[in-house]
Amino acid sequence: MPAELDPFISRLISRPEWLPTWSNQPWAAIADAGDPAHRRALERWGAVRDHVDPAAYAGIAILLIEAFDDDRALLAFAEATDREAFFEAILPYAPIMAPGGRGSRSVGKLFLTRLLHSLGDGVLRTDIIDAIRHLRIDDRGEVYLVTRRALASELNGTPAQDAAERYADLVLIAAAEATPDRPEVMRTVMSYWGADEPLDDVPTAETQGIEAPASWLATCALIRRSRRAADAERLIELAHDTDFWRSTAKEGPGALDASAYVDGLEHSVADSAEDRLLEIAKADLPVSSRAVAAIARRRARMAGAPPIAQPRVDAVTAALLEAGLLEQEPGPRGAEIIREHATATDSPLDLAALVLGVSGRAITFDLAAGAGPLAPLVTRSLAAIALATGSRRIPFDIDDHEELGAGVEARNVDTGVRVVFQGSRMGAAEFDALVPDDVDSDGRGLQRIRIDADHVTYAYVDPSAWGQFIDWAATTPLPDPAPVPPRRSAQPGGEIGGLLGRLFGRG
Where does the record place the region Disordered (predicted)? Predict the structure, then answer.
C-alpha cells in the first residue's frame, strides 16, 4: 500500500458528497489507497461531525463503510439525526453501496420502513424501490409481496391503477433479486408462467411494443440468483421457450430483456445454462456476442482460472503506466471490478476507461436512461468537474434546465471549466463553472476518452500523456485472450473457442 496518499484520492475523500452516485468505482480507488486513505477519511469525519450538513456527513459515513467496512460514522450519524433526514441524506448513495454488503444491511430495515411509509402516504417513490432493488435487502418475507397485494387492493379501479401495477412490478423484481430462494417468491413468479398456483391475483402491468412483462425480468433475476439448481432449471426451460431473448433490437427494452437473460444464465447454478448460452451465441442476434463472452467468463469462474480478457487488461494497464496516466496498478478492489466487467471483445479505449475508472481517474455517465428528464446527467457532469478541479461550489441552478439533452462535453478554460451541452433539446447551451483561485493545476484536466450510444467517459489526465496512449492503442495489437477453459470433459476451447476465434477474425 502507498505510504503517502495520492492528492487526487485525497480530494475525492475531502468531497464525498460530490462522488458520482452511479458508479462503485470510486470506492475501489479509495479502498486500495489503504491506511493513509482511511486516516484521511476519519479526519474528514471529524471535520464534519459537529456541523449540520447532512450531505457532507452522509457522504463520509457511506465512504467509510463501503471503502473500509467502518460503520462508526454511519451509526453516529443515525444517532444524531432525525430518521427521515438520515434516510433522505443516505438515499442518493444507495447506487454505490455494495448489494448485500455491510452498508446495505445497516440501512436495509430503514429503507423497507420508508417504502411502507411512502405507500401509506399514497406516494409511489421510484427512487426508494430502485435503491432497494440495487441493495438487495432481505425483507424476511414481510414486505415485498405484502406491498404488492396492498397496492392492488387499494388502487384497483382508481386512476392510479396503472401506476400502481408498474410499481408493484418493480417490487416483484426487487423480491426476486433480494430473496430468490423464498418459496413464496419462486411460486409467485412461476404462477405467471402457469407453472404453479398463484398466491394472489396481483396482475403485472400491461407492456408496450416489444417490452417484456415484469415477470420476465423477475424470472431472469431468479435464474441468476437462485441457489437451487432444480428451480433454476425449471425457470430456464420456461424462459427459453419465449421470444424475449430472441430480440433483434440493438438498444431499448428488447435489447435489455435479452441481456437480462444472458446475464442470468452466466451466473446460474443450472447445468443447462451453458447449453442455452451456446444456442444464443450461435443465433446471430445482437446479444450473441454477449453470450460468447458470458460462456468464457462462466467457464473461467467455474474453473478458478483468470478471466480470458486478462492478457488484454495487462497490456492496457502497462501502456497506461508507461504513459504516466497511472502511478501504479489497480489494487485488489479495483482488480476485482476489472475481472467482473472486462470482456475479450473490449477495445483498448473500453479497457482504459475501466482501468482508469477503478483507479479513481475516470468517470462514466450512463446516457441510456431514456425516460424522464436528464437533469441528473447534467448534475453529475458538474459534480465530476467539481471533483476534477477541486471546486467547492458550482454556481448553476439545474432546476431550470430539466429538458437538456444528452451529449455532454466539458473542457478546461483559463478561468474555470466550461460545460457544453451538445444537441440539447433547448439548443446548444454553455455554462461556466468557476474554479477557486487557490486550486493549483498539475497539467491534468478533464478529457473525454470514450463515447457511444450508451455511455460517455471523462478522465482526469494529462492531455499529452493521453495522446501517447492513443498512439500506442492505434499501433499496437492487443494480445489474444487467454484460452477458454474446457467444459468438463470437452476438448480445450471446444465450440466456444471456435466462436471466439471467429469473433476475433482468427477462424
Answer: 478-497
